[in-house]
Amino acid sequence: MKKRMILVISALCLGAVLSGCRHIMPFEEDLTTSGTTSSNTGIVFKSRPRDSEEMSGNAVAEDFAQEEKSAESSAAEEKETVDETLQQAQRLAAMYDYDGALELLKGQAENAEYADAIAEIEESKASCTAWTPEQVTHVFYHTLIKDPALAFDGDSDTAGYNQVMTTIEEFQKITQSMYEKGFVMVTLEDMAVKDENGNMVPGEIMLPPGKQPFVLSQDDVSYYHYMDGDGMASRLVVDENGQVKAEYVEADGSVSVGDYDMVPLIDAFVEEHPDFSYRGAKGILALTGYEGVLGYRTDGVYQTRQELDELQCAYLDSHLDFNWDEEVAKATEVAEAMKKNGWAFASHTWGHINVGESSLERLKTDTEKWLTYVAPIVGGSNKIIFAFGADLAGAENYSGEKFDYLKSQGFDYYCNVDSSRLWVQLAPNYLRMGRRNLDGYRMYYNPELVEDLFDAKAVFDKARPTPVPEM
Ligand SMILES: [Zn+2]
Question: For the whole model, what pTM was predicted?
């Protein structure tokens, strides 16, 4: 029962943090492919064997026709290459990577289509203005609710879900509204980076008129045991196309794979609307470790089977083929696919602890567990999004032994929860950012606080029991 309390509390967390390893442009592989296509053009003739001496008139005519056909198909291939390159350049430009787009078209200005595209891209680039870190807002969610009837079924978790969670229907409406208002996802690194002396300095955010930057994050993407059967996804998986999707266990026990949580929903949205992402940026997932990550039971207790709580025991009892190494390998595969796709990871503390109330010793023990069981899966992180929306200090700059310790463990980006539209503190040794919870509680009690993002009354899911319980 005690553990149950902890689990319920963790669902109520209002945390915060950011991400990091996006700067991988998802187009590199495509470029290689198009290069291969163009170098294949021209090899077509040479590879075809012919015997010119014994060729009959018919054969010559046939051969000629075939050559003409080959020339046609080679011209078609060339056209295809031009189209592909243009499309890639236009997609890069749509994501505000104008230099990347121009680099692709470089040296091709004699091609009229390229010349037009280059002029257009240069015009867009010239229209951009710079955004400072202090002008960036940050919104966050928890695991999204796929089936409100199950989440709000009146059991003991209903109140918590109603307060701090968001349904997929609401999430889609909010995302569409933010897109229409010109919001563009950026990373924490776009806001601030470490210079060669190790000091945090403003990064670069250049956007055209009508666009404004924001950071997106999602907390507790563990698919905790207590959420089983409550209408939410059960884990993230990589599908046969290398895309990250969510698994959902249906009422009859069968498993569906689809866009059942934020990661695949945002991936699909950016696929359709590349201008929602700044140079490939996606969101940051803030992960605890005590029940594993991303729906995989990767914590040490599942391996040692020591100090298991009731739900963990029940899980292992019903998964007799459980293999800890396989869980870690699968979680790592998902994390790697996500990073390739622009996503980043942050610590949410291993045990969902309140860093403000915890002793330095507890913070150290907890961080060591995160570094042991979570960091290797996500490739480490320099970001911490505090659980419960807690923080190390008030508005004054960070100092003291807890901050010194976290900084010594590599954390440069720190996030809390704050309902202000803008709350950013760029110090020489860290970036701190407040995050806004877009959940049932906020929409029901403070619709005015999200007016810049969406109309809460239009978004609020009618499947929610009202009033949303007070905190
Ligand atoms: Zn949390």
Answer: 0.84
